[in-house]
Specification:
It is built from three helices and 20 strands. By secondary structure, the protein is mainly beta. The chain has a domain of 146 residues. The protein has an 18-stranded antiparallel β-barrel. Strands 8-15 form a two-stranded antiparallel sheet. InterPro entries: OM_porin_bac (IPR005318), Porin_dom_sf (IPR023614).
Length: 457
């Protein structure tokens, strides 16, 4: 098992490997048209070590542990892998309607794993006695695009939508990609509009572009289509409001509203307030049963150019959890303010609060170094009146009045500011989670060590 300190050193070395001596040059022989000259090639090396230690009798159910009694399962998930992400984007052809193309290549290499320690989301694997993680894997995808004014339409299987309804995750070795059509328009001053329809997804540790979307609560769900429409109006950089509406076909409709405002107090001091709301309601064939759940959250931050202190409260109103789009192994990025790195604090009727502290060392003489720590606590979960679909997912367990859980996240990250390794980012994350009752996650301690080096042409 690699030690985290050794992993960080090796990660930095691997991720900083030079890709080309011509990093600051363009191919001068390419035709002098926007299609070529506005194009961009980005190659990102990412090295990722992940260790999740299941505490107090918990165990890993995946890989060769599948089907074994709890006492015979491995007590951790522990993997190390290296990935390369190649992203090629063209510009647009001249004319009233410009056309272009994009391509994305993904390659992963297993550095350390086993059938008993797999399931981290880094490496593809199969469940069962012979289940072993892959040694090398990869996928290629692409998209075509058209531009009219400041409106861009894309269609393909390498898209990465990022909005409050569907935000594909990039929190493991390789990013999630989706198949569908997206539209983004900036034709109206201060207004950004987005719309999309997506039918398939490639999970972060998969090579299959034909997977269906699932939900965070039910990894086995088969959502045939996700669609959304919404936009954000920005008065000033930190004063904006947005609304979105979306549908997970035959599961539920989801509605979202959010507003943010910042008051400058003099010098670099500020107070920032953010209000967030979600509403889920069953739709179509109601495959997730009858749903009527709401989430409301409010956060306030006092900060300056060195420190930031954030306090937040969040509550689910309704007898069902506030579910959201996911792949079969990981959720999309939840936009809930109290979402941690493991759980989203979005169970039925759940209340939660968080305190967070950020420290930027730029003004302290170490530009590029940042620290973050936060503590989130959830309580008052009550699923006694949840519909049978969600109750069955919890094994018909009813939360008790004293059930609660908390998550603590700590992160240290550093980005090299100059020299040949400029842009190299090193990140260490530690999570502790403790629960009572039969929450869907047990007690865990987790370490992630990530090194990333992007190179662009």
């Amino acid at each position: 098992m690699p030690h985290p300190a050794h992993t960080l050193a090796a990660s930095a070395l691997l991720a900083a490997l030079p890709i080309s001596a011509a990093a600051d040059t363009r191919y001068e022989y390419l035709p002098d048209t926007p299609f070529f000259q506005d194009g961009k090639l980005t190659v990102t090396n990412r090295n990722f070590y992940f260790n999740r230690d299941f505490r107090d009798g918990g165990a890993n159910p995946f890989g060769t542990n599948w089907g074994k009694p709890l006492s015979e399962r491995n007590g951790e998930r522990n993997e190390w892998a290296h990935g390369v992400i190649v992203d090629l984007q063209s510009g647009f052809t001249p004319g009233k309607i410009g056309f272009g193309a994009e391509a994305k290549g993904l390659v992963g290499l297993r550095l350390d794993s086993s059938g008993a320690r797999t399931g981290t989301g880094l490496i593809p694997y199969t469940n069962g006695a012979g289940g072993q993680p892959e040694r090398v894997w990869g996928s290629v995808g692409g998209a075509v695009k058209a531009k009219i004014g400041e409106t861009v339409i894309k269609a393909g299987n390498s898209l990465t939508p990022a909005n409050p309804i569907l935000h594909t995750a990039d929190v493991r070795l390789l990013p999630v990609t989706a198949t569908g059509v997206s539209l983004e328009s900036k034709d109206f001053d201060k207004l950004n509009l987005q719309a999309g329809v997506f039918t398939h997804v490639r999970a972060q540790e998969s090579t299959n572009h034909d997977d269906r979307f699932s939900t965070d609560q039910d990894g086995g769900a088969q959502v045939k289509r996700i669609s959304y429409l919404g936009g954000r109006y920005t008065w000033q950089p930190h004063t904006w409001a947005q609304v979105y509406a979306g549908e997970l076909k035959d599961y539920f409709n989801q509605y979202h509203a959010q507003a943010n405002h910042r008051w400058q107090l003099g010098g670099s001091q500020y107070i920032n307030v953010n209000a967030t709301g979600y509403y889920n309601h069953d739709s179509g064939a109601k495959k997730a049963g009858k749903i009527n759940a709401k989430l409301g959250a409010l956060t306030a931050t006092y900060g300056n150019d060195i420190h930031a202190l954030t306090l937040g409260v969040q509550r689910v109103f309704g007898d069902d959890p506030l579910d959201y789009a996911a792949t079969r192994t990981i959720g999309s990025l939840a936009r809930y303010p109290n979402a941690g790195w493991v759980t989203q604090f979005s169970e039925a009727n759940e209340k939660s609060w968080q305190v967070r502290y950020d420290l930027d060392f730029k003004k302290l003489g170490v530009p590029g170094l940042e620290l973050m720590g936060r503590y989130i606590k959830g309580y008052d979960m009550d699923n006694s009146k949840s519909n049978s679909y969600y109750r069955n997912l919890r094994g018909n367990y009813t939360y008790q009045p004293d059930d609660k859980h908390w998550e603590r996240n700590i992160e240290a990250k550093y980005t090299v500011q100059s020299g040949k390794a400029k842009g190299l980012n090193l990140r260490v994350r530690h999570t502790t989670m403790r629960t009572s009752g039969t929450y869907r996650y047990g007690n865990i301690d987790e370490v992630r060590v990530i090194a990333q080096y992007p190179w662009s042409l």
